[in-house]
Design a protein that fits this description.
2 copies of one chain form a homodimer. Chain A has 12 helices and 11 strands. Chain A has 333 residues and is an alpha/beta fold. In chain A, strands 7-8-6-9-10-11 form a 6-stranded parallel beta sheet, sandwiched between helices. Chain A has a 5-stranded parallel beta sheet with strand order 2-1-3-4-5, with helices on both faces. In chain A, β9, α9 and β10 form a beta-alpha-beta unit. In chain A, α3 packs parallel to α4 and α7 packs across α8. The radius of gyration of chain A is 20 Å and the shape is globular. The two termini of chain A are 32 Å apart.
């Protein structure tokens, strides 16, 4: 069941802007869904959305769901939050959170939801039981973003691709596999939080059979070259059966995220390895472009770097933020 | 915490021998731990262990744990079971089960365990919170069994290797990653049941730093070529950082288990792919032998097949049941 919008973005007592990273992603990609922001004393994050001071005001403004896309001080659902969140439920709004701790584990919230017939979405915790992956080819086209590392812009690239395809009138769905993505489209599966045996099965469920000219753009996770998370990446690769891969990269990264002993793989090796492993469930897979997060480079250096990659890899290479992804989408039409 | 032996093997109302497959594996590898079998009316499985008619008799015989290694009719913990299992707890024994449904979810059993200070082991459900894999190399040696498919004899080969190494006086632990293996050594982690993000982390925890000449023999799961489970296999490969791989195969298998559209990979490709992926966390990995389940072949055909593989692959190839694994262990000394 999808999370209803418009949203009230709940920033709680987020100590800084980084703590509101998820909320910021939602506000960036769904400005039209975000009616305003709600902040408690001590909050140092700001999404530059209209300030909404009370839950009554949020309900009046038409908000359907209060989205908790923040990490607060202490990482738990504090007493100060419970008070206002309960009010939201009593006023007929749902709650959605991407926290490690579940909203449904707070008795007052669970009771208020039941009493009002409202929903609590703990998007980091899949509640569905998935089937084991069937592996057999299903109709519809799929594009998966893969990466040299974690956090190199796979979600951003996927959304930019899906938005551009939609703009061109193509049949397309963005398929969210992480909490920010789930808030952005209102549904999805946190694939890294499913039981290991069902990674591919959950991915198959998320990207079902579809019309032959319909595209699922699937948000990738981790990297085949990340020693902690490669199992998740491989399950996504097999379950999504991608026709097209877009390789994502961040050129200033000194080592694999969280693993100081591991350097990033070369782009060509990373591309070959992903194609090699993806062929198990789709022998026709091919890489159609490279999305680079060049935010760490000056504009000139960024464009020089992108031209270099285009020459070496013989594929369109873009920074989705600086240049958009039109040259990659051209390859799909 | 380890499951205490001796065991009483609880066969319940297992409809046939196959339903008691787990119990049979335990009785095969730990005859000295299995004091007897307990069967309810309608049970058609038989482990050829001494028949124990009551829980009082089991307690008197010194049993410490009642092991439920069966799938009963209906797949649930029936009322008929609860009665005798509660008696076992009241008599001071623990319970251990490999069922999908948890013992701990049955109120009468949970209460009886608490009342008597006894333990309920639901070995299919990891209860520990694992850390994300660190990836860095740790001391000690590790051997992992990998396979062309699921259920080709990886557990059997791993146990045969560990038992043979122990017989030779080598420092060795068998590391169980599935329910049968866990009953056989009393501890381990059902790796396919952990949260996807922690497959490698759980494997690192299971195979910790050790003396430089100590071997962990790690039970493999699934196959890199199995479209449903490859993510689990890759996480195991990265987390165990194997120095040595043993490739397991079943030559009469017509297609990948549960996937009629997928044929088994050639042995050489399967070996290369496993080595290639394993190099991420251990560049010195090498395959040291091939274990073949030839139970589907006559003795002559089996040995012809093994000699053929030895010639083609230039590695020792054995059926652990027919021939033992001495020629593979020779390579480790």
């Amino acid at each position: 069941m999808a999370i209803e919008h418009p949203y009230l973005m709940f920033l709680g007592d987020a100590p800084d802007q980084l703590a509101a990273k998820t909320a910021q992603g939602v506000a960036h990609w769904r400005p039209e869904w975000c009616k305003g922001q709600f902040r408690l004393p001590g909050c140092n994050a700001d999404l530059k959305l209209p300030e909404i001071a009370t839950m009554a005001e949020a309900a009046e403004a038409g908000c359907r769901t209060v989205v908790i896309g923040v990490a607060n001080r202490g990482g738990v659902i504090s007493e100060a939050w419970v008070e206002v969140l309960e009010q939201a439920l009593d006023l007929g709004m749902d709650l959605a959170a991407g926290l490690h701790n579940r909203l449904a584990a707070v008795p007052r919230l669970r009771e208020a939801a039941a009493r009002n017939g409202r929903q609590l979405f703990d998007v980091r915790h899949p509640t569905k039981d998935f089937a084991v992956a069937a592996g057999s080819k299903r109709p519809g086209k799929r594009l998966l973003t893969v990466g040299t590392d974690c956090s190199v812009g796979k979600m951003y690239a996927s959304l930019a691709l899906a938005w551009e395809m939609d703009r061109r009138g193509m049949k397309v769905n963005f398929r969210a596999t992480g909490q920010t993505g789930i808030f952005i489209v209102g549904e999805g599966v946190s694939v890294d939080a499913v039981i290991a045996d069902f990674i591919s099965g959950a991915t198959e469920w998320l990207t079902p059979a579809n019309e032959p000219d319909h595209w699922d753009v699937v948000e990738g996770q981790g990297s085949l070259f990340h020693a902690s998370y490669a199992g998740v990446s491989l399950g996504l690769l097999h379950g999504s059966q991608p026709d097209a891969l877009v390789l994502c990269h961040e050129p200033t990264r000194k080592h694999m995220r969280g693993l100081p002993d591991f350097s990033l793989p070369p782009l060509d090796l990373c591309m070959q390895r992903n194609e090699q492993m993806a062929r198990l469930t789709n022998p026709d897979v091919r890489t159609i472009g490279i999305a680079v997060n060049t935010s760490g480079l000056e504009s000139d250096a960024a464009h020089r770097y992108l031209r270099e990659i285009e020459d070496t890899m013989d594929l369109p290479a873009v920074d989705p933020v600086r240049d958009g992804v039109a040259s990659i989408v051209d390859r799909l039409e």
